Amino acid sequence: MDRTMRITDLSISDLESRQAVLQGEYDEVKAAKLSLDLTRGKPATAQLDLSNELDGILEGFFLLQDGTDVRNYGGILGIPEARELGATILGIDSESVMVGGNSSLTMMYNYVSHMLTRWQEEDGTIKFICPVPGYDRHFTICEQLGIEMITVGFTDDGPDMDAIDSLMASDPMIKGIWCVPRYSNPTGHSYSDEVVKRFAKLGKSAGNHFRIIWDNAYAVHHLADTPDRLTNLLAACEKEDTSDSVVMFASTSKVTFAGSGISFVGTSAQNLSDFEAFLSTQLIGFDKVNQLRHVRFLKDADAIKAHMEKHKDIVQPKFAMVEQKLDSALAGKGVASWTKPKGGYFVSLDTTYGVADEVVELAADAGVKLTPAGATFPYGQDPDNSNIRIAPTYPPIAELDKAMDVFVLCLELATVTHLITA
Amino acid sequence: MDRTMRITDLSISDLESRQAVLQGEYDEVKAAKLSLDLTRGKPATAQLDLSNELDGILEGFFLLQDGTDVRNYGGILGIPEARELGATILGIDSESVMVGGNSSLTMMYNYVSHMLTRWQEEDGTIKFICPVPGYDRHFTICEQLGIEMITVGFTDDGPDMDAIDSLMASDPMIKGIWCVPRYSNPTGHSYSDEVVKRFAKLGKSAGNHFRIIWDNAYAVHHLADTPDRLTNLLAACEKEDTSDSVVMFASTSKVTFAGSGISFVGTSAQNLSDFEAFLSTQLIGFDKVNQLRHVRFLKDADAIKAHMEKHKDIVQPKFAMVEQKLDSALAGKGVASWTKPKGGYFVSLDTTYGVADEVVELAADAGVKLTPAGATFPYGQDPDNSNIRIAPTYPPIAELDKAMDVFVLCLELATVTHLITA
């Protein structure tokens, strides 16, 4: 049997003999009792090593130019030098930037919490638009805070703006939208100039309390020599007089130490001051010593670029391997389609038939952990049961090699089994 | 006129001549345009210097005994070694400890937020008991979250337990109480064994969702050679089968770097697991690199004790100066009474007449910033307008000397003026 034949062209008996072969391979793999993990977008040890000099980089100097002692209490907006760093990463003015602690997710959670009381002043269920597939932790925030999620799909240019416009025109209780505008998690989309311009217009008719949560998590995380471009939304909003409608987020989690970086919020002066007041109830200030460490280490745009090139050298071969494994095992078979991202941390794969949960289960039983099927959709429910997020960065390349072999095997086995029993 | 005469024994003309003298001194001070600050309990630079080796202490070693790489994502409960450190500071078992980021206030805010949805399931206004005077940031959390505050006073042994028992018996919507059980902010009270035992009983009849917020902020912050003792509340609660009613907090903010330390939460296994689940929506984990730094630096109980002795050597002379200034200027005059704390960060002073706001204003006009009058009470309202919190740790001793001279001057001037116009 030709391994590259389209699966829909196979007869039932062809499918059955193929299933037998795959099942035999699967049983062998299972016996090997692997323990491999493709679940989360975690940097590899070699990537973490790139930033080891962070600890100790201050060499006993804790004073800022303005006389601030970073070791002591205070200053919710962050140290000026780190706000400058955030401005460089977000491509905005440093006065629009707040620098937070080790988690931009915490900043997003707090920002949404902070708006909640305003939204609750209106009658009705608060709703967010969620382009899907998307980032599970965004959706969990909505779920915990009781915000209803409405999904829209993607076009090549980013989220389906026509669908978004029409939803917003029909429902004034839509108060926000989640976006990962560059190398979107997990699809790898970077929003086109036109899409960003349309985002800038959303705030015009949406009321004062509508917020675009612009999670620029992969702002500087390129895999290709020619990075995707991204128009600056805050600048575009300033032209449309909708600056209050955008709140940008970024962090150094996948730049320095994943769990011990700093985070950035970028938004209008009014939003920043409201948010600062909100946060002042729960903290005196974020960790300024760590902010200063990051300033000393990441320095400026050129230094960041050079540093991210080193990440690319480690990460890019892993993405190349995923692509090669998928291509060589599945190209032309009609079993699945997948993305070839130019940055970020994920490959997004859609099975042709609704077998994502089956693939994840087969892989788990064979010792390869994948993100749960459905995780990339609100409430964990993928209506097509087809999207699987592959996170290739964390495992060493030899493990990734094995894990991908198991994955493509499980994918084809689940598909063949589906077609036989369908 | 005898400067040590009781102020109530003075005639109006005596008071007027005293006022003239004080006003003259005050005008001179004002002309000197001082800029001194006694507002917040911030460590002095010399105290921060005690921990400078924190930055760089890891020397490139980021792996834990269990193989965890502290640089990467994950682990909301904190690294085992830091949980052990928290257990030492809180005097409880490490399995009862969560280790957080740089702010125990954030942990308290989150903990109270987390309980809010449960409390809201019952009909009625949620209420907290607040022993007063107390810590303004506790009260602000209640205010932001819409929790009504009911005040109780102190006896020599700690909060007025009879008043607390009677409030709780009469109102099932009392869901919590704020406590700083050792060297209470600002009064310096350490709760007696008997008071702690009575706290352990509160949970018996208060329902499953009642929580004692036990902010042990000054757990190891002694000023005297014989520290105040404090019975362990969690152990006492275990005996009474009320472990879920207590949530302990502590931090290293006034042990290492005020803005860049780590925080601890100590509570029952059930509470810890509920809280962990709540936090998992807003973060992947706290800064484990900084947790490991603190483990390497603070080591164990003996090392912490030795380190805190160094703080005491810096801080104790400042408290001695405050006491000496108050004694020499005001003893026997009937103008105010004040505390002589054996630990913590504050001296609490009560004016005899309701002139606290006037004193703070006079001092401010003379260039000495004090915590706003009323700040130590819920909603910023001191019914007697008499409590003033003095924070002597931050200024260098020469500045403290000047600031206290201004303070006692303003205090006497405001009192004399009050008596003349009353």
Describe this structure in words.
2 copies of one chain form a homodimer. The first copy, chain A, is of the alpha/beta class and 422 residues long. The first copy, chain A, has 2 domains: 7-47 and 305-421, Alpha-Beta Complex (Aspartate Aminotransferase, domain 1); 64-299, Type I PLP-dependent aspartate aminotransferase-like (Major domain) (Aspartate Aminotransferase, domain 2). Helix content of chain A is 42%, strand content 13%. Chain A contains 13 helices and 14 strands. Chain A has helices at residues 12-31, 45-49, 80-90, 104-119, 136-144, 161-170, 193-205, 233-240, 269-279, 288-298, 301-330, 356-365, 397-421; strands at 36-37, 97-100, 127-131, 148-152, 154-155, 158-159, 174-179, 211-215, 246-251, 263-267, 336-338, 347-351, 368-369, 387-390. In chain A, the strands form 4 sheets. Chain A has a 7-stranded mixed β-sheet, sandwiched between helices. In chain A, strand 5 and strand 6 form a beta hairpin. The longest helix of chain A has 30 residues, at 301-330. The two termini of chain A are 22 Å apart. The interface between A and B is large, with 50 and 50 residues.
